[in-house]
Amino acid sequence: MKKMKKRMIALLLGTVLLLCLFTGCASKNQTPQTEQSAQTNEHAKTDGADLAEKEETPVALRLVMFGDLSPRREEYFKTDFHDAVLRDLNIDLTVEFLPWSSKDVLQTMLITGEKIAVNNTVAFTDWAQKGLCAEIPMDLIEENCPNLLAMRGQYGFSGCTFNDNIYIIPFGNKAYSGTGEFYTVREDILDEIGIKASDITTIDQLLECFEAVKNAYPGMRVYMGGDAGGTDPTNTLLGHEFIGQVTTTSRKNGVYVNEQEDNDIVYNYYESELFKKCSQFNALLIEKGYALPDHFTDPGQGLADWNAGNCFARYGVAGQIIEASFISAIPNAKITRIKIGDRPGVIDRDYDWGMSISAADAEHVEDWLRLFDWMYKDQQTYDFLIYGVEGKDYERDANGNIQKLSTDVFWEDWFLMAKCYMTYDPSISQDKIDMYEHTDDGAIMSKLAGFAFDSAPVSTEMDMLAAAISEYMEPIYRGIVDYDENYDNAIAELKKAGLDTIIAEYQAQFSEFYHENH
Q: 366: how many CB neighbours lie within 10 A of its CB?
């Protein structure tokens, strides 16, 4: 009876909210900033208050997330956030944080039946395949999450499903294409050397630009690359320039797909012309001095140089051009982005991260959905989550701009970021805001969106392949050793480790996924 009672209340609330959708994302455009700035984060009672009055005993929930704790962040989640959720939703929520390296710890918690909700993406784990996550029926999402659905807009749940069931509630609505497709560059330096970013559309033009920057700023790092695990734009960049394809590549598994082809073909990356061209391109960057020897091995130093204003270009994502921290640190700097070619952007996942509910806590799916929906109910709540308590952690000026009084992180802005609620720093020019907000125009959804490779059938081969790639192929890819002199031996070692077996297994799994979803 209690569950039926909750379902009826949630349905009534959902009906009222659907009739008032402008109280969600649309409210940002209707409520003047001056009026919003007069509001406080004391949080007037919301739609959930009626439910709280009807249920005297709070629902106890436990949320476990990745991240670091500062004293103020810990205080915020134990007091300010906890009290707001308890007051508005009658949920007694405990929030815990684990280091980002604790995926195995979380999996153990799920296996042992702990009742929790956790950070998750389909690509990050195979928890759904293992039955560790509760199924989240679409009818419950529609009943309990009108604000979240309004915020999500055109984005659905294609990247959050397994076997046609939803196991993750995605958060955020922002520009999702472009990861690894852009170069973020110092526009002020381009101005000084007389080059327009929009004129750089080919590899040759990019290299000419790098050479001009090196000559004008001999002590500056020209380009910082990705990390040692494969986050690098080279594959996408050269996949277009040299073989006329939009490619999505996994160096770890040795595969790539052609996003322009309407098929389920998985290609052998390490035996492709694409791998050869990438290796030769990286070698050229090192030879010319555009990339330093630590280009792959120490990405942290490259990032430090960028943040210090001692780097011209970095591999990019869409949101970098609206980051105010860089401009604040280097007041005279301007940043923009370069994209080689005219290929459409590729969206491999239409959310950064979401929340999964443990299978052991399936009885509280609706309570979790109420919480997730509450987080996107209005501008005031969104600001409370991102910036903290108004008057203590932040304030708004007369123009409605956010002035942070605290450097602490509360809810990660990249995790919750929703275009309809975003307040841009006044240092960000309107042309950069427009560039960011139109990033996804014409973008295509990757064929791999929502696909998670189950490596269990080839776990032994995967371990052997990882070791072989590290020893034989990574030095070639990074341009440390010559491609022609070392490739034949390297590919033989990869095949000995089981490359062909892994690709065959990947092909079988992806073909099944592709034909079920396309």
A: 20
| Paired residues of 161 in beta bridges | 166
Helices vs. strands in the chain: H and E counts, helices first: 23, 18
CB burial string 153-183: b at 16+ within 10 A, e below:
eebebbbbbbeeebbbbbbbbbbbbbbbbbb
Q: Is 329 helix (H, G, I), strand (E, B) or coil?
A: helix
Structure tokens at 479: 């341009």
Torsion of CA 18, 23, 28, 29, to 10 degrees: 70
**Average pLDDT over every residue of 492-502:** 97
- Token duo for residue 400: 């409605």
Q: How far apart are CA 119 and CA 415, in angstroms?
A: 10
Cβ atoms 157, 346 nearer than 8 A: no
Q: Long-range contacts made by residues 245-249, C-beta under 8 angstroms, separation at least 24?
A: 246/343, 246/344, 246/346, 246/444, 247/274, 248/346, 248/348, 248/446, 248/447, 248/448, 249/274
E-strand spans in 198-299? 221-224, 247-250, 255-258, 267-268
203-216 helix and 273-288 helix, angle to the nearest 10 degrees: 20
| End-to-end Cα, the chain, rounded Å | 41
Amino acid letter, 48: G
CA dihedral 481, 487, 493, 497 (to 10 degrees): 100
> CA–CA separation, 321 vs 424, rounded Å?
11
Residue 264, helix vs strand vs coil: coil
Per-residue pLDDT of 342-374, as tens digits, reads 778 888 778 889 999 999 999 999 999 999 999
Half-sphere exposure of 234 (CA within 13 A, CB side): 28
Per-residue burial over 114-133, b if 16 or more Cβ lie within 10 Å, else e, is: ebbbbbbbbeebbbbeeebb
In the 8-state DSSP scheme, what is residue 64? E
Q: For residue 210, what are its two tokens?
A: 């790098």
Average pLDDT value over all residues in the chain: 84
> Cα 110 from chain centroid?
23
Check the CA dihedral 126-132-162-226 and report its sign. Answer: negative
* Segment 260-314, tens digit of pLDDT: 889 999 999 999 988 998 899 889 999 999 988 888 778 788 888 988 899 999 8
Residues whose CB falls within 8 Å of the CB of residue 103, separated by 6 or more in sequence, listed in order: 124, 125
The span from the CA of 199 to the CA of 66, in Å, is 41
Strands 169-170 and 182-186: unpaired
Copy the structure tokens of residue 245: 């394809």
Express each pLDDT in 185-228 by its tens digit. 999 999 999 999 999 988 899 999 999 999 999 999 999 876 54
